[in-house]
Amino acid sequence: MQARQQGVDAAEVVGEIVQGMLQSARPVRLKDLEKQTGIASAKLHRYLVSMLRSGLVAKSADGSRYDFGLLAYRIGQLATHDQDDLDLLEPFFKDFIDQLQDDDLGQAVGIGRWVGTGATMVKWFERDSPLSIRANPGAQLGITTSATAKLLAAYLPAEVTKPLVLRELKERDCLTNANVKLVFNGYANIVSAGIANSIGARRTGLNALSTPLFDQSGKVVAAITILGMAPNFEAQLDGRAAVLLMALGRQLSLKLGFSPAA
Prior knowledge:
Blueprint: H1 9-22, E1 28-29, H2 30-37, H3 41-54, E2 57-59, E3 65-68, H4 70-79, H5 85-88, H6 90-99, E4 108-115, E5 118-126, E6 140-141, H7 147-154, H8 158-171, H9 177-193, E7 196-199, E8 206-214, E9 220-229, H10 240-255
Antiparallel strand pairs: 1-3, 2-3, 4-5, 4-9, 5-6, 7-8, 8-9
């Protein structure tokens, strides 16, 4: 019998924790993960602290549960690259960005997704431009400021988004009942209109429009976002760029099996 090669115990423990999370209803509580893995909660907690720092896991808004983080998501993206429906749509995004010849229609098109407890951009398609305006993939976006994050949050249940909204408004030092109501009224308007925008949210002069991409079950699986610089790109909800973006969203949703009638 071949002798077992020597490995690193810590890496194997991380693997057990990941397996336990895969087999649990997420986000998972520490005590439930302890039952699933058989690892003592004190030891689990130490490992989860390091996994949080590396991005393998993320904490829920109230800090009591754990889910997979952005790093785990990126690993999953690479592992399933050839089977991801969005990858099959890449030629359509490339064709679309090629059609945006005027600066008033935007300079970059990106795909955003909800990961764990927030929204992030996972892919960009950019026109030839001396100015790079796209955000780094994996960066978490503001749920009350970013067009992409607002769009994705608008289609989620309030019990999921409200703790995140409260936390972000507090971090921005503008947490009031009036502002919370304003955010959720904005979400309702986004769902009604099918599009969101942001004006200088991440950087002065950088504007964005975002529209949903639905799958065959009617679930929003991604946001399609256009970025552009003011004063050329004003990100108007009723502008020509918005019309083109929403048409692209409808076209690609149909290709994913979405039925508007259903």
